[in-house]
Amino acid sequence: MPRTSKGAITIEGQTVEVTNPEKPLWPEMGITKLLYLQKLGELAPYLIRYCKGRYLTTIRYPHGVGDKSFYQKNCPQPAPPFVKVAVHAGIRYVELDSLPTLLWLGNLACLEFHASFDRIGEPLRPSEWVLDIDPSREEEPRIMEAAALAGELLDSLGVAAVPKTSGATGMQLVVPLEPELTFDELRGFGRFLAEYLVQRHPRLFTAQRLKKDRGDRIYLDYLQHYPGKTLSAPYTPRARAGATVSTPLTWEEVRGGARIADYHLLSIGARLSQVGDLIANVPPQRLGPIIGFLQRKT
Questions:
Q1: Partners of 6 in the beta sheet?
Q2: Which residue range forms the structural domain that includes residue 172?
Q3: Is residue 1 situated within a structural domain?
Q4: What is the mean pLDDT of the chain?
Q5: How far is 188 from 194, CA to CA, in rounded Å?
Q6: Are residues 91 and 161 in the same domain?
């Protein structure tokens, strides 16, 4: 049997074991496990912000991208003492609240981090609303156009949103919120937006949940924003060719035809040092008056 190599990282007073540091995780990008852990360190202040206090699902690729993978909800065992868990519906979720915990998950080849919309131990009053813009085709040249049109509609309602790449093929619009509304109230808001956009741009958008009914149209998934559901967290890596990262963009970048593939693990550190966290720059929005107005109109 080949001899495995290992080492350890001491960070924030905790020691994280690193096994097989030279294992290729994104071979075509030259990203080994050790380099991945370094990149997670760059992402940590941003990624942890959007995973902390959430129920976390990871996707693990023990032998790197292109090999077998599996979803992990329950905390892997054995876990070091610094890893906290939150029990919900019989599942022991990892609480991603520190850099040591993030690096521990990275060493286990967790290459994607998906966070719940509901928060651990808090009332079901979400602190953001998200519209998932999901193409039906693997290559969709209209995805930035679709995001821009949805953003223009929100802007016309006086709602500030941040576009972010999913890191895969789609886009998501994130609206930071004052935690005053229920998921059901926000679902009604999402339905209004989706139906309006489908009516205005029937060849571009669809609200049909079943893929067989979508054709080549782009799906406006307002149903995903709900308790128990997850979405790729802002700044999560994605286990795809190119080592893409789910990255918030400016509206100028969206209108300029940004490419999802341009935002990846090898470039994200420099970008974050230049622009910071674009989501954190948007103040929490109050959608209550808008939703109340729409309800009175219907």
A1: 19
A2: 128-297
A3: no
A4: 96
A5: 10
A6: no
* Higher-confidence position of 214 and 6: 214
Do 94 and 148 sit in the same domain of this protein?
A: no
Distance CA 93, CA 97 (A): 12
% residues pLDDT > 90 (the chain):
95
For position 140, what pLDDT does the model report? 97
Q: How far apart are the C-alpha atoms of 28 and 46, rounded to whole Å?
A: 26
Looking at the predicted structure, is the pLDDT value of residue 180 above 80?
yes
At 7, give phi and psi (nearest 5°): -155, -160
Strand-pair partners of 285? 177
pLDDT reading at 3 higher than 80: no
Q: Is the pLDDT of residue 249 over 50?
A: yes
Identify whether residues 139 and 184 lie together within a single domain: yes
Tally of structural domains, the chain: 2
Strand locations in 61-170 (E): 70-72, 84-88, 91-95, 110-119, 128-134, 162-165
1 pLDDT more than 50: no
Burial class from Cβ neighbours inside 10 Å (0-12, 13-18, 19+) for residue 81 reads exposed
> Considering the domain boundaries, does residue 139 fall inside one?
yes
d(CA 278, CA 276): 6
Domain-located, residue 84: yes
Give the helix/strand (H/E) hosting 55: strand 54-60
Q: What is the pTM of this model?
A: 0.96
Q: Which amino acid is at 128?
A: E
Reported as type and span, the H/E element at residue 39 is helix 33-51
Q: Is residue 59 located within the same domain as residue 169?
A: no
Per-residue pLDDT, averaged over 169-183, amounts to: 97
Same domain, 239 and 222: yes
DSSP secondary structure, 177-214, as one string? B-TTS-HHHHHHHHHHHHHHHHHH-TTTEE---SGGGT
Which CATH number characterizes residue 72's domain? 3.90.920.10
Phi and psi at residue 19, to the nearest 5°? -105, 145
